[in-house]
Amino acid sequence: MNVVSRLQGADVLRADQFDRGGLDLILDKARGFARSLERGERLDTMGGQILATLFFEPSTRTRLSFEAAMLRLGGQVVSVADPKSSSAVKGETLPDTIRTVDGYADVIVLRHPLVGSAEEAAQATDKPVINAGDGAGQHPTQALLDLYTILQERGEVDGLTVALAGDLKHGRTVHSLAQVLSRYGVKLLLAAPDALRMPPDIANDLRAAGVSLEETENLQEALSSCDVLYMTRVQRERFADPAEYEQLKGAFVLTREMVEGAGREVTVMHPLPRVDEISPEVDALPGAAYFRQAANGVPVRMALLTLITG
Ligand code: ASP
């Protein structure tokens, strides 16, 4: 099966389902859509189709950029943006909700607090299910837009040193991004306090795949040897003990002096929302890419939606 037909009708559940060919195809298509957005073209590629976005956890960027992508493609959207407004609060199971939405939409985008929920949803329908974040598990479409951003900002991905910093334990974006980057010739630096290290199963898989990987507890050290610094928020909602969160939340704070003192041109990324791990004065630096990164969600999700619906 070729790359295009592998994506047709596919669920998007985990970042490691993509091989290099699939990733390059998505990047290429996303670039095409970015150009057509710049030109203000009106598209009808997905005219007559409906996207359902079901968000059982808060979201700004992921839900809105999926919906914007579908609308830009001429399709339509139905949405559960607030979990309190769905029948889940009446005790409905996820598979029952999905079986119902199967009757209303052509593609289903799901965010849910439980790891593995997207897989469970995918089993309940033949329609493509896209994982928009399953608890502390995966966030594969964020990884696609992160990859696209790295390419846009740096001109290439192969050969770069990328530092992933912050809450690598609970951060689903970094789990997915590390897997996507493992398809390219990158060096990974994992910077986290000991309590927030990358889960060993993911780190071991990366090593087994031949990725050059180093771990450090020192943000400055990672900054001084990377091309891209990917900061993350300490994921408050994943802590059973609020005192532990309070103790860890300020572990890594990136300041303008740190970036300017790195002695190299560093691209700073963040999936957002940021709390206080990037000081606002970093925003004015040319390498601060996080708002451009958020905007890239639209062309990348346009690419993905068109590829999986054929
Ligand atoms: N927005 C990202 C996510 O949904 C990152 C974050 O919340 O910290 O995982």
**CATH architect. name of the largest domain:** 3-Layer(aba) Sandwich
Count up the domains. Answer: 2
Q: What compounds sit in this structure? A: aspartic acid
Reading the helices and strands in chain order gives: HHEHEHEHEHEHEHEHEHHEHH
Calculate the terminal CA-CA distance, rounded to whole Å.
Answer: 14 Å
Backbone shape: globular
The CATH class name of the largest domain reads: Alpha Beta
Write out the CATH superfamily name of the largest domain.
Aspartate/ornithine carbamoyltransferase
Largest sheet: 5 strands, parallel
Question: Helicity, in percent?
Answer: 25-40%
Structural class: alpha/beta
CATH-derived topology of the largest domain: Rossmann fold
The proportion of strand residues reads 5-15%
Q: What is the overall pLDDT average?
A: 97
- Secondary structure: number of strands: 9
User: What would you report as the Rg, rounded to the nearest angstrom?
Assistant: 19 Å
Low-confidence stretches: none
Strand order of the largest sheet: 7-6-5-8-9
Number of helices: 13
